[in-house]
Description:
Low-confidence stretches: none
Mean pLDDT: 97
Order of helices and strands: HHHHHEEEEEEEEHEEHHHH
Radius of gyration: 21 Å
Bound molecules: flavin-adenine dinucleotide
Strand content: 15-25%
Amino acid sequence: MQLDLTAEQRLIQDTAREFAAAKLAPLAAKLDREGDRPAFLANLRSLAQLGFMGLNVSHSYGGAEAGVVAFSVALTEIARACAATAVTVSVTNMVCEVIQSVGSEQQKLRYIPKLCSGDLAAGSFALTEAEAGSDPSAMTAAAVPDGDGWLLNGAKLFITSAPYAGLFVVWAVTDRLAPKGKGISCFLVEAGSPGLRVGKEEHKMGQHGAATCEVLFDGCRVSKDSLLGELNDGFRIAVGELAGGRIGIGSLALGIGLAAMDYATAYAAQRVQFGQRISEFQALQWQIADAYTELEAARLLLMNAAYRKESGKSFAKEASMAKMFASEAANRACYSAVQMLGGYGYMAEFPVERYARDARVTSIYEGTNEIQRVIIAREVLRNFEFSG
Ligand SMILES: Cc1cc2nc3c(=O)[nH]c(=O)nc-3n(C[C@H](O)[C@H](O)[C@H](O)COP(=O)(O)OP(=O)(O)OC[C@H]3O[C@@H](n4cnc5c(N)ncnc54)[C@H](O)[C@@H]3O)c2cc1C
């Protein structure tokens, strides 16, 4: 069993860490407090040029072809410095991968190189609606045939990167009469298409640098070549892609948790109360021990899910386990980090306050942790079917 990173994976991890320290960390607090979209977008472009937007994408489409383990470790390093940048990178990789996995050769050549190079800035994954979150099969956005193309109508909610994404992957109902989940298709819609409008940007608890918006389709006409994958196969495509995306979100959560604990541990080693460093109190040592143990367990779960995906094995259950565990470990680590700093942990002047807010959503987006538990239990129970 090989648990070490390969030389290439380590190089990618080091490159991500160096870029994050040099460019992302110095901007993260400003992005959180007041925003700086030009600087944020400039960093995204640099990350694209370093190969981070298509880590698991073939060279022939402009990707880094570095695999899923490399994707996971890179995302953790990016998130250690800036979770808002990390989620944008994660979703853009997911958009590249879905096109690579089910797109036509023409779609792959048209869009993936531009996503990987940064020419399209970012990709958006537009699945959720106001009445269709955990249950996307309840969506009402619809696409109807219109001449030799399709007409899209409906509204998507909470869409990451919408104001600056160059490309949207959009899910819409194409057969209203089909059984639940069987009449949904997937479309590629370019930013600026007539009838596509990006609505209001949400005010969120954390990850402020990454925009989360409503996206409205009002008679948005797309060509017949915009259909991604087979007609009415969209729900299956979404489920498959979200499983891979969860490795990204778990890796991102791990990065936030590590950043919080590294900061709090360094703080505890300096801060003096009762005439001694607070790190000498067992109460703090146990918080350090518990958090680093849980984060290490999260890392191993992530590596396992990433390795399985990379080697073509089934990985949906493992990805759900990793996302669920890593996001909860990261939230617990952030809670401890704030506690270890005492009152200073609650002040915006210290980064653990931001880490705690940034970590919160990782147990919610790309499938809440309740839904991850549904997926895990379903997979486990499959092996315990009632035999009469
Ligand atoms: C910052 C942010 C960014 C996002 N980015 C994107 C994006 O880019 N693209 C996109 O398509 N979506 C995006 N989302 C949407 C996100 O994936 C959904 O918010 C999430 O899937 C939950 O859906 P919901 O908010 O409608 O909650 P609901 O589905 O209403 O769930 C509410 C509660 O009920 C629980 N629940 C629901 N069903 C079950 C069940 N069967 N068993 C047990 N518990 C259940 C949930 O776990 C949750 O606790 C984003 C969300 C946020 C907050």
